[in-house]
Amino acid sequence: MLVNHINTKARVVREILxxxxxxxxxxxxxxxxxxxxxxxxxxxxINLISRKQTExxxxxxxxxxxxxxxxxxxxxxIELCDFGTGGGLPGVPLAILRPDWQVFLLDxxxxxxxxxxxxxxxxxxxxxxxxxxxxxxVGLDPMYDSRFQWLTARAVSAIGxxxxxxxxxxxxxxxxxxxxxxxxxxxxxxxxxxxxxxNLIEHPIKLNGYSDFYFGEKKLVEIKFINxxxx
Length: 231
Fold this sequence. Notes:
7-stranded mixed sheet, alpha/beta
């Protein structure tokens, strides 16, 4: 019964994305469905997402993770670092739907990265890369120092922390997409404090075909860095 319920939500999510002009091939969608099934299965023994949210994984996690492809204009053939990837969100769905990208999943916990590798094994996601370590330390590695022009962070930390922790990873002019909710004035570092360092663009999550989108005040914050903070 639970599987049928989840599959129903999968169809709804695909319909919503198509209504928002996001083109998805059948092969990509099958790959995404397979990955979500594996995520739900492995989540029974390794906590990658809240177990209370298993039934809403498609609407609450997958659709949420894919919204940058609807709301933000990305170039082709980019390298993107999913900072603090946790259960592979949003990194894995983005990698599946954008095979022209190289997506680097970064997390400080080996257990999480090992679990994501298990869920993606054999899926054919040759554009997925895995990094274990703390962002501020990984950025000191010559391989990753100032490497990324694009980064994502979902349910990781306040914008001020994200700025500091990604400082060595990102290029001088880079874009970090932070999944946020509520007023940014409650952040440790406010938009006004960042005005000489970055331009912030707020994208409320509103999609055609889903008037009851239950992310409420949730938004994507596009942080376009133009300088380095306090460096």
